[in-house]
Every structure is written in C-alpha cells, then in structure tokens.
Amino acid sequence: QVQLVESGGGLVQTGGSLRLSCAASGRTVSRYAMGWFRQAPGKEREFVAVISWNSGTTYSADSVKGRFTISRDNAKNTAYLQMNSLKPEDTAVYHCAASNVYYSTPDRTANAYAYWGQGTQVTVAS
C-alpha cells in the first residue's frame, strides 16, 4: 500500500509562489505515474499536472501552463508542484495522486490513479 502526504500549501498573495511536496511511503512509487489535482469549494476535482515515472512526459492543464511545473525525485519518493504567478482562481485543496500500474503513461483523468493524499490547502488572496 502507498500513503501520500502533501505539504507546502498556505496563504499567498496574487502573483506569489508556492512549492507543494508529495511524500510517498509504504513502497516506492518510482515506477508509477503521479499527478496533482485540485478541488475548489463547490466544484469538481480537476486535473492540474501529471508526470511519468521517469519524468520523461508531463502534461499540464491549460489554466496553469507556463505557471506551474510538476517534477519528481524518485530517490526521495517525492513529487513536487512548483506554482508561480498564483491567481485567486488557483485557490483550492491540492491533492497528490499515484498510479498503481508500472510504467503507465500519465493520465489526465482522476480515476486513473489508485492512491491519493488528503490534500493541502492553497489560498491566493487578491
């Protein structure tokens, strides 16, 4: 079983930056695709960014392209989301997710991921 714990969220002003971390434990996630999804109050969970097991492929939502960067460090069993130029509409709970299929192509849909963290709150003040 894999446990995922997010950290790094908080309150930031418009235009600011945050770096989210997702630490995995229980077993290595180095062979699994990982992703970040977010959910704002009253809205459905939405795709933010995903990354392949070897960092060779990444996808980002159009709304965050050029501002957010997903990365991972397999030696640390950790994924990251660097968020720059934050906007109030980025306010949400950010969840980390991991696949349970070895070497799978990263998927933009939430139901492709078996493991989920509890989330970390990101609030961007205007």
Strand residues, percent: over 45%
User: Structural class per helix/strand content?
Assistant: mainly beta
What fraction, in percent, of the residue positions are helical? under 10%
Radius of gyration: 13 Å
Which segments are poorly predicted (pLDDT under 50) over 5 or more consecutive residues? none
Please trace the helix and strand order, writing H or E for each element.
EEEEEEEEEEE
- Helices, by number, come to 0
Q: How would you sum up the major sheet?
A: 7 strands, mixed
Q: What would you call the shape?
A: globular
Span from first to last CA? 40 Å
Mean pLDDT: 97
How many β strands by DSSP?
Answer: 11
Description:
The protein is mainly β and 126 residues long. It has strands at 3-7, 10-13, 18-25, 34-39, 46-51, 58-60, 68-73, 78-83, 92-98, 115-116, 120-125. A hairpin with a 4-residue loop joins β7 and β8 (78-83). It starts with a strand and ends with a strand.
Structural descriptors:
single chain, mainly beta, 47% strand
Topology:
Layout: E1 3-7, E2 10-13, E3 18-25, E4 34-39, E5 46-51, E6 58-60, E7 68-73, E8 78-83, E9 92-98, E10 115-116, E11 120-125
Parallel strand pairs: 2-11
Antiparallel strand pairs: 1-3, 3-8, 4-5, 4-9, 5-6, 7-8, 9-10, 9-11
Can you summarize this structure?
The protein has 126 residues and is an all-beta fold. The chain contains no helices and eleven strands.
